[in-house]
C-alpha cells in the first residue's frame, strides 16, 4: 500500500498533482498558521528610564498596555539595551533622558530616543507608527497643561491650540495595518506560480501535439488546473485563516484563471524549446520565481530604476499580485481590472504566436521523452 | 580541424554544477541589487480636494507638491472621486482640505483635515503618511509659534514650548531603511540553497541510476559534495562582493564566520538532499520538487515573519525539518549588525545537530534505495 502511494507520486501525473495541489496546500496551511497573528504584536521592547518620574512612568504604562509591544526589560543601562537589540532579543529600545520632565516644564525640549532594529524592516513601520501615536498623545496632553498653566487658556481653547491643524489619516482597505492581509495572498500566488510554470514545462513533454489547436488546448487545460488550485488555496485562507476577500468573486476568478494560463504558457514554451526536461524546468523556474521578488508586490515599482520598471511591467505576477491584494482588501469589481485583463490577453496572444513558431521550427518537444518512458518502466 | 563534440559536451556537463553554484548567485545578485538600488520611495502620486480654496489652503497644496516624496497629480472636486482615485491607483493618497478651513483656523476652531491613503501597499502607505505628516507638522509648528508669541511668550521660549518633547528615531544598522540592505542577504542565502540542492539532485540521482560497479563510492561522493560546498561558498563571496562593490551593500560582519555558517548549512542540507534523492527516481521530478521550496522555506525561516509573532512551537518544527532558519536570519544579522560568533554559536550548533540527525538518516535512506534497486533491477536504462 505504502509503496503503491509512493509509486503514484513518482509517476509524471502523480508528481504534477503533488506539485500543483498537495505541496502548495501544505505550504498554504503552514503560512496560515505562521501568520495567525494578524497584526504586529508583542514587539520585544526595552525601556531605559533615566527620568524616573510619574510622567515617565505614565509614558511607560502607555507602551506596556499597548498590545503591539512587549516590554522585555526595564533597565538603566543603555549598553544593556544595545546588547539586547544586537542579540535580537529586542527590536525597539526607548530611552527617557535624565530630568526629562523637569526640562519639559522649563521648556528645554528634551529628546526621547527611540532605537529600532532595522533587521526586521517589515515590522518596523508598524512599531514606529504605534509608538509615534503614543508619544504624540503624551506630548499633546503635556502641551495642553502648558497652555492652561502658562498662557491662561481654558481647557477647550488649549485643546484646539495644541494641534492647530488636526489631520486624520485614513488608511483605506487595511485600516488595522495587518501585515498578513498585505502579504499572504501574494505569497500564495508566488508559490503557485512556481508550480504552474513547472506544470507548463512538463505539459510540453507529455504528448506530441502536432497542431496549434492541440497546444492551445493543452495550455488552457493545465492553466485551468493551476487556477483551480490557486483559487482553492485562497478560498481556504478566507474560510479557515480569516483572510479578507471584499472584491468581486467573478473578477477574482477571471484574473486568477488568465494569470494561471499565462504562467503555464510560459513554462510550455520553455518546455517546447528545450529538449532536456531538467534544464527546461530549471530555466523556467529561474526565470519565473524571481518575478515574485522583482514585481511591485514586495518592493514598490515607484522606487525601482526606470529600466526595471519597464521590465517588471512585462511580468504577469506584477499585475496579478497587485490585483489580488486590491481585490481581497477593497470592494473592487471588473472596472478596476480591465487593464490587467488586457495585459493577460496580449501576453497570451504573443505566447500563442511563439508556440506556433516554436512548433513550426522545432516540432518535437522532447528528445528525452523515450528515455523518460523507459525510466518509468 | 577535428573537434570531438561529444567530449566537449561531456566536459561542459561536468562543469555545469560548478558554474551553477558559483555564477547563479552572482547573476541574481546583480539583477535584484539593481532593482533594489533605489533607497527612497519618492514622487508618490497624490490628489488634493481643496474645498476651502483660500490662499492658505493653496499654500498647503504647494508645500505638499514641493515635498520630494509627493507628487500632486491633480485636484478633485467631489468626495466620490476620493475613493475612485485611490481604487484606480491613479493616486495613492488624497488630502482633503475642508470648507472654511482657514476661517476656522483663524478663529481657533481646530479645523480637521483628512488624508486618505491606499493602505493596500503598506510601504507606499507609510511613506505617503510620513511625507504628508512632515508638511502638516511644519505648518502646525509655525502656527503654534505665532499663537504663543501672540500671547506674549518670548520668541525663544515659544520655540522651546513648540517642541516640548521631541522624539528622535535612530534606525540601527540600516539608517536609510534600505530594502536592499534588509533583503539581499536573504536572497543570497536562498540562491545558495537552491543552486546547491539542484546540483545535489543531479549528482545523487544520476549516481543512483548507474549500475553498482560504475557507481561512485561513498568517499567519491563525499569528495564531490565537498567540492560543491567550496564552489557554493565561492558563489556566496562573489555575490556579496559584487553587491558591496556595485550597489554599496554594507557588509559589517566577518566573511569567515559567514562561510562557517554556510558550510554548516550546506552540510545540514546534504542530509535533506540525500533523503530527497532516495525518494525520487527521476532527476527532473526532484528538481521540480526543490524549485517549489524556494519561496516557502525563506518565509518560514524567521527571516520575513519574526519568531515572536509565530504561534508557540511553530519555529521548533521548522528547525527540525529545514535548516535555512539556522542560516538566512543569522547571515542577515551578521552582515547588518556586525555581530560575532558569541551570538551566532547557537545557529552553528543548531545546524550541526540538524546535520547529525539528517545526514545519517539520508545516507541510510539513500543506501537502502540503492540496495532495493540493485536487487530489483540489476541493470538500468543507462546501461542499455
Question: Mind telling me the C-alpha Rg of chain B?
Answer: 30 Å
Major sheet: arrangement of strands of chain B: 2-1-3-4
> How widely separated are the two ends of chain A?
19 Å
**Strands of the largest sheet of chain A, in order across it?**
2-1-3-4
Structural class of chain A: alpha/beta
Protein structure class of chain B: alpha/beta
Q: Which whole number gives the mean pLDDT of chain A?
A: 86
Compute the number of strand runs of chain B: 5
Question: Which chain pair has the greatest contact?
Answer: A-B, 121 and 110 residues
Span from first to last CA of chain B? 32 Å
Order of helices and strands of chain B: HEHEHEHEHHEHHHHHHHH
The whole-number mean of residue pLDDT values of chain B reads 88
The biggest beta sheet of chain A is recorded as:
4 strands, mixed
Shape verdict of chain B = elongated
Strand content of chain A: 5-15%
Helicity of chain B, as a percent range:
55-70%
Beta-strand percent range of chain B:
5-15%
Radius of gyration from the alpha-carbon trace of chain A, in angstroms? 28 Å
The H-and-E topology of chain A, N to C, reads as: HHEHEHEHEHHEHHHHHHHHH
What report would you give on this structure?
With 377 residues, chain A is of the alpha/beta class. Chain A has helices at residues 2-10, 12-34, 54-65, 78-87, 100-106, 121-151, 155-162, 179-206, 212-241, 249-273, 277-288, 291-294, 306-312, 316-329, 338-361, 369-376; strands spanning 43-49, 69-75, 92-96, 111-117, 166-172. In chain A, helix 6 runs antiparallel to helix 7 (155-162) and helix 10 runs antiparallel to helix 14 (316-329). Chain A is elongated, with a radius of gyration of 28 Å. With 384 residues, chain B is an alpha/beta fold. Chain B has helices at 5-35, 55-66, 79-87, 101-106, 122-150, 155-162, 179-209, 218-247, 255-279, 283-291, 294-299, 314-321, 328-337, 341-376, and strands spanning 44-50, 70-75, 93-97, 112-118, 166-172. In chain B, helix 5 (122-150) packs antiparallel against helix 6 and helix 7 (179-209) packs antiparallel against helix 10 (283-291). The longest helix of chain B has 36 residues, at 341-376. Chain B is elongated, with a radius of gyration of 30 Å. Classes of the chains: A alpha/beta (377), B alpha/beta (384). At the A-B interface, helix 2, helix 4, strand 4, helix 6 and helix 7 of A face helix 1, helix 3, strand 4, helix 5 and helix 6 of B.
Amino acid at each position: 500500500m505504502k509503496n503503491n502511494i509512493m509509486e503514484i507520486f513518482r509517476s509524471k501525473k502523480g508528481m504534477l498533482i503533488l506539485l500543483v495541489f498537495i505541496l502548495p496546500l501544505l505550504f498554504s496551511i503552514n503560512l496560515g498558521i505562521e501568520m495567525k497573528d494578524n497584526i504586529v504584536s508583542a514587539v520585544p521592547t526595552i525601556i531605559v528610564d533615566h527620568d524616573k518620574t510619574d510622567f515617565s512612568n505614565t509614558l511607560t504604562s502607555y507602551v506596556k498596555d499597548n498590545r503591539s509591544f512587549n516590554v522585555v526589560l526595564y533597565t538603566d543601562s543603555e549598553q544593556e539595551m544595545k546588547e539586547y537589540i544586537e542579540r535580537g532579543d529586542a527590536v525597539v529600545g526607548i530611552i527617557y533622558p535624565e530630568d526629562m520632565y523637569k526640562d519639559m516644564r522649563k521648556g528645554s525640549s528634551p529628546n526621547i530616543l527611540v532605537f529600532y532594529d532595522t533587521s526586521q524592516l517589515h515590522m518596523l513601520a508598524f512599531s514606529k507608527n504605534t509608538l509615534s501615536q503614543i508619544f504624540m498623545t503624551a506630548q499633546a496632553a503635556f502641551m495642553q497643561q502648558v497652555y492652561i498653566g502658562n498662557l491662561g487658556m481654558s481647557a477647550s481653547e488649549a485643546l484646539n491650540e495644541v494641534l492647530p491643524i488636526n489631520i486624520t489619516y485614513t488608511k483605506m482597505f487595511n485600516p488595522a495595518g495587518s501585515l498578513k492581509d498585505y502579504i499572504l495572498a501574494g505569497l500564495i500566488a508566488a508559490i503557485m506560480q512556481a508550480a504552474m510554470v513547472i506544470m507548463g514545462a512538463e505539459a510540453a513533454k507529455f504528448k506530441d501535439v502536432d497542431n496549434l489547436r492541440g497546444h492551445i488546448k493543452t495550455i488552457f487545460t493545465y492553466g485551468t488546473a493551476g487556477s483551480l488550485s490557486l483559487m482553492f488555496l485562497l478560498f481556504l485562507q478566507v474560510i479557515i485563516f480569516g483572510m479578507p476577500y471584499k472584491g468581486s468573486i467573478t473578477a477574482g476568478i477571471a484574473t486568477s484563471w488568465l494569470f494561471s494560463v499565462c504562467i503555464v504558457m510560459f513554462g510550455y514554451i520553455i518546455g517546447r524549446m528545450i529538449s532536456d526536461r531538467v534544464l527546461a524546468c530549471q530555466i523556467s523556474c529561474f526565470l519565473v520565481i524571481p518575478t515574485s521578488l522583482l514585481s511591485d508586490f514586495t518592493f514598490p515599482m515607484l522606487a525601482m530604476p526606470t529600466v526595471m520598471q519597464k521590465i517588471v511591467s512585462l511580468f504577469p505576477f506584477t499585475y496579478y499580485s497587485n490585483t489580488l491584494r486590491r481585490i481581497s482588501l477593497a470592494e473592487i469589481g471588473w472596472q478596476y481590472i480591465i487593464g490587467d485583463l488586457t495585459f493577460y490577453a496580449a501576453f497570451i496572444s504573443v505566447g500563442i504566436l511563439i508556440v506556433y513558431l516554436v512548433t513550426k521550427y522545432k516540432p518535437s518537444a522532447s528528445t528525452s521523452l523515450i528515455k523518460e518512458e523507459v525510466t518509468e518502466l | 580541424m577535428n573537434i570531438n563534440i561529444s567530449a566537449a559536451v561531456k566536459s561542459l556537463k561536468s562543469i555545469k554544477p560548478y558554474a551553477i553554484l558559483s555564477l547563479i548567485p552572482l547573476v541574481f545578485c546583480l539583477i535584484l541589487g539593481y532593482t533594489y538600488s533605489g533607497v527612497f520611495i519618492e514622487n508618490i502620486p497624490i490628489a488634493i480636494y481643496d474645498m476651502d480654496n483660500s490662499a492658505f489652503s493653496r499654500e498647503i497644496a504647494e508645500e505638499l507638491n514641493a515635498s520630494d516624496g509627493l507628487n500632486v497629480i491633480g485636484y478633485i472636486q467631489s468626495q466620490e472621486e476620493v475613493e475612485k482615485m485611490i481604487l484606480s491607483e491613479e493616486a495613492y493618497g488624497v488630502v482633503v482640505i475642508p470648507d472654511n478651513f482657514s476661517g476656522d483656523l483663524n478663529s481657533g476652531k481646530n479645523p480637521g483635515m483628512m488624508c486618505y491613503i491606499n493602505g493596500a501597499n503598506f510601504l507606499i502607505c507609510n511613506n505617503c503618511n510620513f511625507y504628508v505628516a512632515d508638511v502638516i507638522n511644519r505648518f502646525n509648528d509655525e502656527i503654534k509659534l505665532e499663537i504663543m508669541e501672540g500671547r506674549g511668550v518670548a520668541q525663544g521660549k515659544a520655540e522651546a514650548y513648540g517642541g516640548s518633547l521631541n522624539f528622535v528615531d535612530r534606525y540601527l544598522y540600516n539608517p536609510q531603511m534600505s530594502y536592499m540592505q534588509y533583503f539581499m542577504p536573504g536572497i543570497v542565502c536562498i540562491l545558495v540553497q537552491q543552486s546547491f540542492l539542484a546540483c545535489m539532485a543531479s549528482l545523487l540521482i544520476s549516481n543512483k541510476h548507474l549500475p553498482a560497479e560504475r557507481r561512485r563510492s561513498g568517499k567519491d561522493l563525499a569528495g564531490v559534495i565537498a567540492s560543491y560546498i567550496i564552489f557554493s561558498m565561492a558563489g556566496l563571496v562573489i555575490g556579496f562582493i559584487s553587491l558591496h562593490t556595485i550597489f554599496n551593500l554594507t557588509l559589517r560582519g566577518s566573511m569567515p564566520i559567514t562561510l562557517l555558517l554556510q558550510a554548516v548549512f550546506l552540510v545540514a542540507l546534504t542530509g535533506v538532499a540525500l533523503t530527497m534523492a532516495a525518494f525520487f527516481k527521476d532527476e527532473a521530478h526532484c528538481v521540480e520538487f526543490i524549485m517549489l521550496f524556494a519561496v516557502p522555506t525563506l518565509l518560514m525561516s524567521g527571516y520575513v515573519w519574526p519568531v515572536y509573532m509565530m504561534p508557540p512551537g511553530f519555529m521548533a518544527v521548522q528547525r527540525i525539518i529545514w535548516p535555512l532558519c539556522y542560516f538566512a536570519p543569522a547571515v542577515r544579522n551578521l552582515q547588518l549588525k556586525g555581530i560575532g560568533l558569541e551570538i551566532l554559536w547557537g545557529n552553528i550548533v543548531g545546524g550541526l545537530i540538524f546535520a547529525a540527525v539528517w545526514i545519517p538518516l539520508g545516507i541510510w535512506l539513500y543506501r537502502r534505495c540503492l540496495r532495493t534497486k540493485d536487487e530489483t533491477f540489476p541493470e538500468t536504462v543507462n546501461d542499455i
